[in-house]
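Q: What changes when zinc ion is included in the input?
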Amino acid sequence: MASFELIRRLAKSNGGKILLLVMDGLGGLPREQGGPTELEAAHTPNMDRLAREGAVGLSIPVARGISPGSGPAHLALFGYDPVEFEVGRGVLSAFGVGLELGPTDVAARGNFCTVDANGLITDRRAGRIPTEVGEQMIALLRSIKLPGVEIELSVEKEYRFVFVLRGEGLNAAVSDTDPQATGVAPLPAKALKPEAAYTADLINQWIDRAREVLKGQHPANMLTLRGFAMDPNLPKMRDVFKLKPACVAVYPMYKGVSKLVGMDVIQTGDHDSTEDEFRKVAEIWDQYDFVFCHIKYTDSRGEDGNFDAKVKVIEGVDAALPILLDLKPDVLIITGDHSTPASYKAHSWHPVPTLLWAPGVILPDRAQAFGERECMVGGLGQFPATDLMPLALAHARRLEKFGA
Ligand code: ZN
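A: The predicted holo structure follows.
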């Protein structure tokens, strides 16, 4: 694996254009023994042709056996070692909804939840209230003021929101208040280091007030906070890879992780379809030399355990693919950030099918279609996801020779 610093040294500011298409949770498993995976079952004539012309392989998001969250898995696809560059959930959420974070601000991801008369959680997601109801609850919570700090709140989507504490002397080493279970009360925020005692105390004061404010509401009559974090100040793609990068994604978290690495985040609608997203890519294509496009629903249907619906999402992406192919990217990568097999109903550790297409410079392999088992014997082999950016840059002729 080429080091991040080596690539930073060799990257050039001119060369071809790169398109990275990520189908979230793309990797799957056979539904029955001997059967196809979701990607293998899907009718994907466009991707199969690209697989014949290009090279395929399996990427390992974080390390063998590790099931990653989407945040770190995307950082790896963008070339950043997710273990070295660890980013808290609160920061991803804050950046995702477009909140700025100052150097001493602490952000957390919030969930509205439902509690019973004894304060025990009965629904961790408050019946998945619509975003509009979430907005109303946030409006109520904005009345809470604490001395010495500012509090900023923003709805992320549905029952999810972002909590930002702004002020001096703050520290993010605070434990989650989400017990990740029902039948128990939300936990108090605890300082994980002595320096975080002041911050934990402020958070607990705010939560006590929030409990009063939300008391008469239903189903969102309580909340939990988790993933307290500060801006990690990641190196930016422009500086490291000498690229002008943009992101086309619908879900806030993916916009957040893209913004963290310095991508321009393109405005999208909440309900944009795959075609809508691909047309957005086409609109901005001339202005950028790296565009990341994110498709969420492969992962959602995998988590639902709906094999057939995940197949349909993949087929929809394939059918819309000509919109991207018309742009004639020099390098096209189609992959996932991790696997979400429908039979497993969760993110898994399985390596992720990856297709690299770069006419004229790619060494083709023998793959005849895009699917897990073709990828297993493909020319890219099994490789760390962080290798994808160096490979993309090389195929776009954006890397100098190493040494004389
Ligand atoms: Zn994901």
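Observations recorded in class: The domain at 4-86+235-395 is CATH 3.40.720.10 (Alkaline Phosphatase, subunit A).
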